[in-house]
Amino acid sequence: MATRPPPEGKPWELAAHPRLAKGKVVGVVVLDGWGEAPPDPFNCIHVADTPTLDALKKVRRAKLVDLALSSGKIYEGGGFKYIQQSFEHGTLHLIGLLSDGGVHSRFDQLQLLLKGASEHGAKRIRVHVLTDGRDVLDGSSVRFVEMLEEDLSMLRDKGVDARIASGGGRMYVTMDRYENDWQVVKRGWDAHVLGEAPHKFKNALEAVKKLREDPKANDQYLPPFVIVDESGKPVGPIQDGDAVVTFNFRADRMVMLAKALEYENFDKFDRVRFPKIRYAGMLQYDGELKLPSHYLVAPPEIERTSGEYLARNGVRTYACSETVKFGHVTFFWNGNRSGYFNPSLEKYEEIPSDIGIPFNVQPKMKALEIAQKARDAILSRKFDQVRVNIANGDMVGHTGDIDATIVGCKATDEAVKIILEAIEQVGGIFILTADHGNAEDMAKRDKSGKPLRDKDGKVQTLTSHTLNPVSALSSLKVPIAIGGPGLAPGVRFRKDLASAGLANVAATVMNLHGFEAPDHYEPTLIEVVGN
């Protein structure tokens, strides 16, 4: 991916690579949640039967970079001034993920927003919290609520009426994506906007502690709850004249809620009432839809992505995943951009994810269907690049179900086998990568690395992403495995890149298509040696 803007007027035409030919089919396979860790019973990738990937054994790690809240300048922007108009007579509602995982939101950004809004006139604030347990440890919701309650208490001491009003677990309430299950958003709407939920509590700390008493409870899936006063009345439904900010900075799990909050013509579920509010996102979550129309921080410009370069140079692309990861091979891949660069050269295919069925109940997910679609696209020879995301390691791993994750890892391996066999048939090239770990370590551990156990002696399962490497290469840790009959003789990994990572993949893919990467890209991972 580009790290600095190209010179103005820089041409889109890519130079031909001097040693690598054009015209080879390139299969790009992203294994979501697939890391490297020492073998033990809680490493589901090790335990699972994965002969195809065992034979390759080469993939490394990356961290999603969050978009930081601009210090101070946020309060000078049009988005903040827009919601500020509601401060005198209305309530400021803040909705988002209560977490310091840095993937969708950051707790310190919420703290800054609370402080800054109160200093700039907000007199009544209600926070609607979504518990995590996915990007951070399950059970950490209690600690985050305690910290938030301390901050709100300090605001109350300063005369600001600040309280938590509602909440629920991120995977069950509000934060659905790619229009997979609108009922998730409806549960959030009912709790945040209408003040209605099956569980009512006097305070949020009581709520998360009580709901977590269920033996099967998990922060990700806590049911919706509302906070009520002494008379049983909800303390913070969203009303006409109020301001609402969704404080997640990542787009995918906020777009659906943004549509419900902003669109007057909306038919995905019965909203019961549609309050006249001033709504702003932390950022604009969809540049194509201009959604939301007001936002606090200007979104970063992500230009000249590899997908656009390749489309402008005639590379035909097929991208496929199931619903829960479809945006990862389209929207995110293309720099937070919806739609095609060139409809005549591109085809994006979404396989519907199972709705209302937990991933550990159907741990194979749609891995084989994705692989079959990719195989057909490869064998059709209609595409130069076939790109997929296989999500079992991540999505099943997040459930904390070790047996199910092992099944999911086996399904991933079977899917990869199907794709590589197709690449073999057409004389193509494959490039295999992963975004972060998950399934390779399903146990919480102490500082010495030993699994933590609960009072009954059972190992405490880990449901969050890991920071383990996603590669077993020894000489150069890069998130990559490259091969296939179409790979030119003499291609090898470079030895002069001290800290290579996912940012280097874009230039590498361009090389495999027979092009030199633009000079403003991170360097390629490969070189060609010999004659």
UniProtKB/TrEMBL annotation:
Enzyme Commission number, as recorded: 5.4.2.12
GO biological process: glucose catabolic process; glycolytic process; response to blue light; response to carbon dioxide; stomatal movement
Residues annotated as binding Mn(2+) 1: 394, 398, 465
Domain Metalloenzyme: 26-516
Sequence ranges assigned to domain BPG-independent PGAM N-terminal in this UniProt record: 66-286
Name of the top EC class for this enzyme: isomerase
GO molecular function: manganese ion binding; phosphoglycerate mutase activity
Residues bound to substrate: 104, 134-135, 170, 177, 250-253, 325
Alphabetical keyword list: Glycolysis, Isomerase, Manganese, Metal-binding
Pfam families the UniProt entry points to: iPGM_N, Metalloenzyme
Pathway participation: Carbohydrate degradation; glycolysis; pyruvate from D-glyceraldehyde 3-phosphate: step 3/5
Cofactor: Mn(2+)
An annotated GO cellular component: cytoplasm
Record field: catalytic activity: (2R)-2-phosphoglycerate = (2R)-3-phosphoglycerate
Chain residues that bind Mn(2+) 2: 435-436
Family, as annotated: Belongs to the BPG-independent phosphoglycerate mutase family.
Name of the protein this chain belongs to: phosphoglycerate mutase (2,3-diphosphoglycerate-independent)
Organism: Digitaria exilis
